[in-house]
Design a protein that fits this description.
The structure holds two protein chains of two kinds.
Chain A (H helix, E strand, L loop, with lengths): L1 H7 L3 H11 L11 H12 L3 H20 L5 H16 L8 H10 L2 H14 L8 H11 L4 H13 L6 H11 L5 H17 L8 H8 L4 H17 L8 H12 L8 E2 L2 E2 L1 H15 L3 H17 L5 H16 L4 H16 L3 H14 L4 H6 L1 H8 L4 H13 L6 H14 L3 H18 L3 H15 L6 H12 L4 H20 L7 H14 L8 H12 L6 H14 L7 H10 L5 H15 L1 H7 L19 H9 L8 H12 L20 H10 L3 H27 L2 H7 L10 H17 L8 H13 L3 H5 L7 H5 L6 H10 L1 H10 L5 H6 L3 H19 L26 H6 L4 H13 L11 E2 L3 E5 L3 E9 L4 E9 L5 E10 L3 E4 L5 E5 L4 E10 L5 E11 L5 E11 L4 E3 L4 H10 L2 E8 L2 H4 L1 H12 L2 E6 L2 E8 L3 E10 L2 E8 L4 H15 L1
Antiparallel strand pairs in A: 1-2, 3-5, 4-5, 5-6, 6-10, 7-9, 7-11, 8-10, 11-12, 13-16, 14-18, 15-16, 16-17, 17-18
Chain B lengths: L1 E8 L4 E6 L5 H16 L8 E3 L10 E7 L2 E7 L5 H19 L4 H6 L1 H11 E2 L2 E2 L4 H20 L5 H8 L27
Antiparallel strand pairs in B: 1-2, 1-5, 3-4, 4-5, 6-7
The chains are: A alpha+beta, B alpha+beta.
Chain lengths: 1135, 193
């Protein structure tokens, strides 16, 4: 193929000449269109970018005149469009032509229309306002009898279409699903898929039609529908399990060669179709034994058939392997898949090798023995000339890192890091190294040095949480205080050494880390005095290459060190120098420093030694300024508007067209695309699905939090061994293990070939043994039956193994049950079972400390559990709310049935409810009521009991409410007869229309006695705001978005005694009493969310400080935060 | 999903760029430059896959490219596409171009940008692979060309003649598959009371 192209174009100018002379195929024919040729020729002849710019600007201005001229025919316009497309592609702005592109699509004949549509789809983006002008054209073309016009319209719809205008074309496109031409049906399916992507709620009703498309008689249409299914199954596999059989059947027929021959590609039947189907099956069979069983046969068949040695068969094989390892495992298939991976890894073709490594990375946790099998290949790949292969290898090693091979692996990663220049790679790799170092560092020196390398290479591109985590780790320390001090001391010393190096350049971030550590922990030094440290910092401060941000860090460090220093000449010069600095920030720091120096008492108070982890009392609300503010306001100053409010006002001014339906409580600015409907449904919370996905998100977030903590806990495993864990014997020193391994490898390797080995080979094997140490012991417990063949290579001494296996038996049983069903990420935690036990203990103790909750005992399946911070005893435990997600209609019918039954407590068992309370009575009748706090409403149940011995007639119950409340769904208020000594139940659901604190629901009951005089009784029930508050389950991310989009906020500090203000107890109170949902806990701050029924969200951010809580509410409703704050103060006061 | 398809020559001059996700003009140009920068410094005998740069990248996205004489064909895809599958798709694309232009060369791409886009539209629609069968694509393109030409010719002719041509059907090869025993159950909708 490449030959064909090769022979054509080697010298552009020559060809142009030829074209001119002969008018060849590539040359432009019409005189007008030859302008493009001229343009291209001109550009090619140019040498500098500047000249090109000039030429194009010239061209654009002449085009501008042409397109605007009334004499320009459509045909000319078409040529102009092509030239505009060319200019835009080169990156020049041709926006003046956009409107003409739309006009061309509107008015042109087929050929011109096509160019018009093409230009539109290249020029405009989804939210471009001109796009609205296209809608009419699209609608017209969709209705055209000309197939090509319909095709063009469908294509443009699937490329760009304004979300708000979907309803205008949706019915037309749905019709096209029944079109007689398969190409139209196919394009219609894809257009609908596009709609599903940008506005899923608008196409919900046509899911049945997708199913029809799947069964279409034409393969192409079926294949197109697979795109949709792949997507939807990825989002939620459980609702499509019933289709598994169909997918399997389709794949079977495809693999079996039942398709017409023209579907073959290099005599492989429809390879892309197969790939798609295999992916779908992988998603469906994940963690599901029954579904997986359906597909074992066809997977086996696919593996068997894909024997041809062509690129595309490898694509199928790769998907097969991926699927086999994704679904519920079957050992036969796994064995075959493992052999396939071998084929990939050992292939001389570099693409296949890459994929082989990828596959290995994917399966490594399930089957570490595979890595051992291919260890020599992996070692070779580490030195591969292709950096991509190297990176993939490092990724693989990253997955198998444990406490024993960490030093070698990190060393390899650092080597790679030093060679690469791509920012993306550095960011990625630096993060991984930092993570591994925190988790498995063998000792202090290594840890600090590794982190030094990370900071100096990763420098200013890395994720900011790396230095943050590192500093927190240093500051918070571990259980052992002396160990912590040593770590800090080591860090301080190593930084001083680094700063001594002449002419060394360090990234700003690294300098910031250094200055913080020096400021905090320089007091640990015995030899160097604080003065010396200050001198070094001063030298840095004077360096011109230092950014002003870093300067602030440095001066902060100097400030911290000042109380410890005896003489302070340097500080004085420093103050002198910076009090006249032009940098206001520095100047302020200098003045602060000066003031502190003059007031020693204050200085000691403000800057205590080694108290970085202890909170300080800060008046966050700046209440001491209140007087000043009041005075200024009196003098006519404008009241302060928070940043977000200002921004919103600005946005409101800018907004031109509002497509959002009115009445939605969410501001549109916070959402884009697919998130918008999700956000709204979060509020209403009526669909079980949306709540569940929301839940998943929070879970995954939680997980990450836990992982980080593990990292910290998992760090320094040695210390754990000696200090806490007596059962685990100190593993044999690494060296001896390596030696042993090497011996074994050598003896094993030596058998077939000659006895002599090159040095290089030996070095490689040594490397291998140090890389793969720790995997061997694990392989003994893998389920896949290949362990015996490998494990002898890397077995530890039996003694150690026995002890270990004893220790982790429980972990074994648990792990083996869930081993293969775990997803990739979960596998990550299974790294080494050895570490696992410890981690688990650690994690448990940590969590129970924090939240004091029973439910944590089951946390080894953390992933599966819902929000873990709910205590079991909680009044509104989320568990209760989650189980039952009725749709409105079913809920009502259920309630109806139950309410007619005589037993009172049958229905409420599913929901939280209040106690039965008598609201009024006389000698014949008694009315009691209780509240049921349902997910979507407040249900009031009234039970009218006839206490007399005779029956009552024409009983009437009438409920009236205040204006703030709305009573809906009143059921059967009138009963002709109440029999003697019986009870009747009525119910109604109540909605709150305006937030309030306390409301009254009053009612009247009328009835007639046998002697026919009528009696009327009045009663009333108090409702509180809390009756309408429900937890709002959102993820931290959504919280962030919502937070910014809400304009109404209220801040307040609540004073509390120290014991009450502790985070766990405060959380518990808020959760139980106010029914808030805990979104996240970050340090001493908590994020909570709730909603006022039906769907007004309110967010709470609170921070614990020494003697109280700082509460900050935000909501879309202006009054809700105030009311909630009031409630909050009330419950906090009570507890 | 395919995020973008880029063709540029050995000097980084873009010859075709098609984005299936909205990026601003500037970002598009940056992506083209960054992609060229990444791809051009790769040797001939290394793998055809790249983890994307920062702009189009993220850990989820990949660049899959092929180098033909003076041109690089680069597909930016997310994780839901098969690497090898896309590699063959590029091959199909190039072969199709070759068929449609009879020995395609860089100049064809320059002077017939619109045609190339049309061919691409028959293969990939809205980021989804629509058709992978070269013959099928060529048939579609040919039929469209024919129809367009004839329409242009009939521009002044009576409307009847035009509609006669219009109703000339596109060739359709029977490509039925027997998926007979699929029984898809329509899920029961919750009844509303």
């Amino acid at each position: 193929m490449s030959d064909i192209v090769e022979k054509t174009l080697t010298a552009l100018p020559g060809l142009f000449l030829q074209n001119q002379l002969t008018g060849g195929a590539a040359a432009a024919k019409a005189p007008f269109s030859s302008r493009l040729g001229g343009l291209v020729r001109g550009i090619t002849a140019l040498t500098s970018k500047h000249e090109e710019e000039k030429l194009i600007q010239q061209e654009l201005s002449s085009l501008k005149v042409t397109v605007a001229a009334p004499t320009t025919t459509l045909k000319m316009m078409k040529e102009c469009m092509v030239r505009l497309i060319y200019c835009e592609m080169l990156g020049y702005d041709a926006s003046f032509g956009y409107i003409h592109a739309i006009k061309l699509a509107q008015q042109g004949n087929l050929l011109e229309k096509r160019v018009g549509y093409l230009a539109v789809s290249l020029f405009l983006h989804e939210n471009h306002e001109l796009l609205l002008l296209l809608v009419n054209t699209v609608v017209k073309d969709l209705q055209s009898t000309n197939l090509i016009e319909v095709c063009m319209a469908l294509t443009v719809v699937s490329q760009i279409f304004p979300r708000e205008m979907i309803p205008a074309v949706l019915p037309l496109i749905e019709d096209k699903l029944q079109h007689s031409k398969e190409i139209i049906r196919r394009k219609a399916v894809l257009a609908l898929y596009k709609f599903h992507l940008i506005a899923p709620n608008q196409v919900q009703h046509i899911h049945i039609k997708f199913r029809k498309a799947l069964c279409d008689r034409d393969v192409g249409v079926m294949a197109a529908s697979l795109h949709i299914y792949l997507r939807m199954i990825k989002e939620n596999s459980s609702s499509y399990k019933d289709l598994t059989g169909s997918f399997v059947t389709i794949l079977k027929q495809v693999v079996g060669g039942k398709l017409p021959v023209d579907f073959n590609y290099h005599s492989v039947p429809a390879p892309w179709l197969q790939i798609q189907l295999l992916r779908i099956l992988g998603l469906l069979g994940k963690d599901d034994q029954r579904t997986s069983e359906l597909m074992y046969d066809v997977l086996d068949e696919s593996l068997r058939r894909a024997e041809l040695n062509h690129n595309v068969t490898y694509a199928i094989l790769f998907e097969c392997v991926h699927t086999i390892y994704s679904i519920y495992p079957k050992s036969e298939l796994l064995e075959k898949a493992a052999r396939c991976i071998g084929k990939f890894v050992l292939s001389p073709k570099i693409n296949l090798k890459y994929l082989g490594l990828k596959a290995l990375t994917y399966v490594i946790q399930q089957d570490p023995s595979l890595a051992l099998q291919h260890q020599m290949t992996i070692i070779e790949c580490l030195d591969h000339p292709d950096p991509i292969i190297k990176r993939e290898t490092l990724e693989l090693l990253y997955r198998i890192t444990n406490a024993q091979n960490i030093t070698v692996i990190v060393q390899k990663m650092l080597e790679y890091l030093h060679q690469s220049k791509e920012e993306y790679i550095i960011v990625n790799l630096v993060g991984k190294i930092a993570e591994l170092a925190e988790k498995y560092a063998p000792d202090n020196a290594w840890f600090i040095q590794t982190m030094n390398a990370v900071f100096s290479v990763g420098g200013d591109v890395m994720q900011p949480d790396i230095p943050n985590n590192f500093l927190r780790l240093l500051a918070e320390g571990f259980d052992d205080e002396t160990e912590d001090q040593q770590l800090r001391l080591y860090a301080v010393q190593s930084y001083l050494n680094l700063l001594d190096v002449e002419n060394a350049f360090y990234p700003q971030r690294f300098l910031q880390v250094m200055s913080w550590v020096l400021g905090e922990y320089a007091y640990l030094l015995d030899k160097e005095t604080p003065e010396e440290v200050i001198a070094k910092l001063y030298k840095l401060l004077m360096n011109s290459a230092i950014s002003s941000e870093t300067r602030a860090w440095l001066i902060a460090a100097v400030t911290k060190l000042m109380p410890q220093a005896h003489s302070s000449t340097i500080v004085e010069t420093l103050i002198q120098e910076f009090t006249v600095s032009l940098d206001t920030c520095m100047r302020q720091h200098a003045f602060e420093l000066k003031h502190l120096r003059e007031n020693v008492e204050l200085m000691k108070n403000v800057l205590p030694v080694d108290k970085s982890c202890e909170g300080m009392v800060v008046d966050a609300s700046l209440s001491f300024l209140d007087g000043f503010v009041a005075e200024e306001l009196n003098h006519g100053a404008a009241p302060y508007k928070p940043h977000h409010q200002r921004q919103e006002e600005k946005l409101a001014q800018e907004k031109v067209l509002n497509f959002e339906p009115y009445g939605l409580s969410f501001s549109s600015s916070g959402f884009t695309g697919r998130q918008s409907p999700a956000g709204i449904s979060l509020g209403s919370d009526t669909s079980g699905n949306s709540a569940e996905t929301g839940l998943k998100e929070t879970n995954s977030l939680k997980l990450e939090g836990i992982k980080k903590l593990w990292g910290k806990e998992g760090y320094l495993p040695k210390k754990e061994n000696t200090a806490t864990d007596e059962v685990e014997a100190q593993p044999i020193s690494q060296d001896s293990v390596i030696m042993e391994n090497v011996d074994q490898i050598i003896t094993k390797r030596d058998q077939p070939p000659a006895l002599t080995q090159s040095k290089e080979e030996k070095a490689k094997q040594l490397l291998a043994s140090s890389l793969f140490v720790g995997l061997g012991s694990e392989s003994t417990i893998n389920l896949l039956g290949k362990a015996d063949t490998i494990s002898h290579k890397f077995r530890r001494k039996p003694k150690v193994k026995e002890i270990k296996s004893g220790e982790i038996t429980s972990a074994h049983t648990m792990a083996s049950s869930s081993f293969n069903s775990l997803s990739n990420e979960e596998d990550y935690y299974l790294d080494t079972l050895q570490d696992r036990g410890d981690k688990e203990l650690k994690k448990l103790s940590f969590n129970s400390e924090l939240l004091d909750s029973e439910s944590f005992t089951e946390l080894h399946m953390v992933e599966k559990l819902s929000n873990c911070n709910l205590s079991a005893s909680s009044l509104f435990a989320d568990n209760n709310l989650e189980i039952f997600h009725p749709s409105q209609s079913t809920a009502v019918s259920v309630a109806n049935e139950v309410s007619l039954a005589s037993s009172l407590l049958e229905e409420p068992t599913e929901h939280m409810h209040s106690d039965l309370m008598e609201v009024c009575n006389n000698e014949t009748i008694s009315v009691s009521s209780y509240k049921i706090w349902k997910n979507d409403c407040l249900l009031m149940v009234w039970s009218v009991a006839n206490k007399s011995g005779s029956e009552l007639k024409n009983a009437m119950l009438e409920i009236t409410s205040e204006e703030n409340l709305k009573v809906t769904e009143q059921v059967e208020c009138c009963l002709p007869i109440i029999e003697a000594e019986s009870t009747k139940n009525f119910q109604c659901s109540v909605q709150m229309e305006q937030p309030f604190t306390e409301g009254i629901l009053s009612g009247i009951i009328n009835y007639q006695m046998m002697d026919s005089h009528s009696v009327q009784l009045e009663f009333s029930v108090a409702l509180s705001l809390l009756d309408f508050i429900r937890p709002l389950k959102i993820s931290t991310e959504d919280f962030g978005k919502l937070w910014l989009s809400f304009a109404n906020d209220v801040k307040q500090n609540i004073k509390m005694s120290e014991s009450q203000a502790a985070l766990p107890s405060a959380l518990k109170t808020l959760q139980q009493k106010l029914r808030l949902h805990i979104v996240d806990i970050i340090g001493n701050e908590g994020l909570l969310a709730c909603q006022l029924l039906p769907s007004i969200p309110c967010l709470l951010h609170f921070r614990v400080h020494a003697d109280g809580l700082a509460l900050w509410f935000r909501s879309s409703c202006s009054t809700l935060p105030d009311y909630l704050l009031y409630q909050c103060q009330k419950v906090m006061g009570e507890s | 999903m395919i995020k973008a398809i880029l063709i540029f020559n050995n000097h980084g001059k873009p010859r075709l760029s098609k984005f299936y996700q909205p990026y601003s003009e500037d970002t598009q140009q940056q992506i083209i430059r960054e992609t060229f920068h990444l791809v051009s410094k790769r040797d001939e005998n290394v793998c055809n896959f790249l983890e994307g740069g920062l702009l189009i990248g993220g850990s989820d996205n990949k660049l899959i490219y092929r180098h033909y004489a003076t041109l690089y064909f680069v597909f930016c895809v997310d994780s839901s596409e098969s690497e090898l599958g896309i590699l063959d798709l590029i091959q199909v694309f190039v072969e199709t171009l070759d068929k449609c232009f009879e020995n395609v060369c860089e100049l064809d791409l320059i002077f017939h940008v619109d045609k190339v886009h049309n061919i691409l539209a028959e293969m990939v629609m809205g980021g989804m692979v629509l058709e992978t069968n070269m013959n099928e694509i060529v048939t579609q393109i040919d039929a469209q060309n024919k129809l367009e030409k004839s329409e242009a010719g009939f521009a002044g002719a009576p409307a009847r003649a035009v509609s006669a041509v219009k109703n000339m059907n596109l060739p359709e090869i029977p490509r039925n598959i027997n998926i007979g025993d699929i029984s898809i159950k329509v899920p029961n909708l919750p009844s509303f009371k």
